[in-house]
From TrEMBL:
GO biological process, alphabetically ordered: DNA repair
Gene Ontology molecular function terms on file: ATP binding; DNA binding; DNA helicase activity; hydrolase activity
Organism: Streptococcus pneumoniae
PROSITE patterns named in the record: HELICASE_ATP_BIND_1, HELICASE_CTER
UniProt xrefs under CDD domains: DEXHc_RecG (cd17992)
Helicase ATP-binding domain span: 205-364
SUPFAM superfamilies xrefs: Nucleic acid-binding proteins, P-loop containing nucleoside triphosphate hydrolases
Entries under Pfam families matching the protein: DEAD (PF00270), Helicase_C (PF00271)
Taxonomic path: Bacteria, Bacillati, Bacillota, Bacilli, Lactobacillales
Protein name listed in UniProt: DEAD/DEAH box helicase
């Protein structure tokens, strides 16, 4: 605090408390309206944590809350469960440390590394993360924890690399240039340069004698599925089967339909957990006999009893949703088949090479031609009634909308409460005009799938959701997100 707090009165029971804060070299004004009692709590030279709304044009902050007057020692702030306060949780954790909790924390790095990189011990770091003596000690603790995370992450990558080397040469898939070109020409659209480049990188890997382990990254709608589909088709022209594993049944069905439309002359099989016993036996038989060229499914693809006749290519969509063990089991279903993993998560190339050091990376960084530009607008919450009126008009035109209730609260229970309240508010507002559905993380998988399926089939117009919306589900009519 660099200026004394002063209160200005204007009008009946209206006033403004004003003072200035300095953060680094920047000085800015802070205003609190109709809270004159705060003046006694704001001392010149004190260090405050203040929450409010920032106005860059005026270099001022309209305060909503003084979070804390920072004492000489740093105070921990925890994510809370419903029914417990910060003070109570701090007291419990402090008591645990005072009774020797940190002595139970075993060191997991060799002393030589601690000495070489000047790292504090693991038990010291854990205590300092909660109750540091000062900011410098907190930073040292954070450095130690982050070093440990990256160290073990890189160790896992090295193990994967060694595993790939031990496996030796990969399959040589001598795919037909003529047939692949013919299918590309028959597509109702032209591939973008980025799609073409990624496809050539994948096809070159498949024809080589080294084992392909490649990541294909591209935003939703960039055309990863077409590239993956052409790679699968190429594998079939070489006399092999290709399998595509996705995290949910709704995505499996979507990919199955897309690939069926792309390749009407190929035999496709869909394998998911919800198949009835007789249907499942029939599908397993077609896969084992080699009668199915392309196999699309969920984690059911790696279950016991699933045998492939000649598996040459594995594609895993949203690869981060599957563990290393699951991916390894699928790979072991064939004779060292090529592996292509896909993700819609934007990853800068340099980070991708670091995070996926055991993989080659292809990036589709272009959107197909003819896409309408995405319009993004920021609005104030008080403008919501106008937005809902506009949304009503969009729904009448045949559009659907996602309404996201973001995870911003201090507890999961409150996040869910917010989403439910928002859903009820919209249901009331759109009564008789639009169908509203709610999707959240506590629902069972089959329940989530059904809600997404209803939205996809236009049985609902507005989908209120926390951030659990399934990436990659194609809903062409959903043109609005709030």
């Amino acid at each position: 605090v660099v200026t004394p707090a002063s209160v200005q009165y204007y009008g009946f029971k209206r006033n403004r408390l004003r003072f200035s804060l300095k953060q680094g070299e920047v000085v800015f004004a802070v205003n609190f309206f109709n809270q004159p009692y705060l003046a006694d709590k704001i001392e010149l030279g004190a260090t405050l944590a203040v929450f409010g709304k920032w106005y860059s044009a005026k270099a001022s902050l309209n305060g909503m809350k003084v979070l804390a007057q920072v004492e000489d020692d740093l105070q921990p702030v925890y994510r809370l469960a419903q029914g417990i306060s910060q003070a109570s949780l701090v007291k419990v954790i402090k008591t645990a440390f005072d009774q020797g909790l940190d002595l139970l924390i075993e060191e997991n790095l060799p002393q030589s590394l601690l000495d070489k990189y000047k790292l504090m011990s693991r038990c010291q770091a854990v205590r300092a993360m909660h109750f540091p003596k000062d900011l410098a000690e907190y930073k040292q603790a954070l450095r130690r924890i982050k070093f440990e995370e990256l160290f073990y992450f890189q160790m896992q990558l090295q193990m994967l690399k060694s595993e790939n080397r031990v496996q030796g040469s990969g399959l040589v898939l001598n795919w037909s240039q003529e047939k692949v070109t013919a299918v590309k020409v028959s597509l109702p659209f032209a591939l973008t340069q980025a799609q073409e480049k990624s496809l050539q990188e994948i096809l070159t890997d498949m024809k080589s004698d080294h084992h392909m382990n490649r990541l294909l990254q591209g935003d939703v709608g960039s055309g990863k599925t077409v590239v993956a589909g052409l790679a699968m088709f190429a594998a079939v022209t070489a006399g092999y089967q290709a399998a595509l594993m996705v995290p949910t049944e709704i995505l499996a069905e979507q990919h199955f339909e897309s690939l069926q439309n792309l390749f009407p002359n190929l035999k496709l099989a869909l394998l998911t957990g919800s198949l009835k016993a007789a249907e499942k036996r029939e599908v397993l038989e077609t896969i084992a006999k080699g009668e199915a060229d392309l196999i699309i499914g969920t984690h059911a693809l790696i279950q016991d009893g699933v045998e492939y006749a000649r598996l040459g290519l594995i594609i895993i969509d949203e690869q981060h949703r599957f563990g290393v063990g699951q991916r390894r089991i699928l790979r072991e279903k064939g004779d060292n088949p090529d592996v292509l993993m896909m993700t819609a998560t934007p990853i800068p190339r340099t980070l991708a090479i670091t995070a996926f050091g055991d993989m080659d990376v292809s990036i589709i960084d272009q959107m197909p031609a003819g896409r309408k530009p995405i319009v993004t607008r920021w609005i104030k919450h008080e403008q919501l009634p106008q937005v809902l009126t506009w949304l009503e008009g969009e729904i009448q035109k045949g559009s659907q909308a996602y309404v996201i209730s973001p995870l911003i609260e201090e507890s999961e229970a409150l996040d869910l409460k917010n989403a439910i309240a928002l859903s009820e508010e919209l249901t009331t507002h759109f009564a008789g005009k639009a169908e509203v559905a709610l999707l959240h993380g506590r629902m069972k998988s089959d329940e989530k799938d059904q809600i997404m399926q209803d939205f996809k089939e236009r049985k609902t117009d507005i989908l209120v959701s926390t951030t659990v919306i399934e990436v990659g589900v194609n809903v062409p009519n959903a043109t609005v997100m709030i």
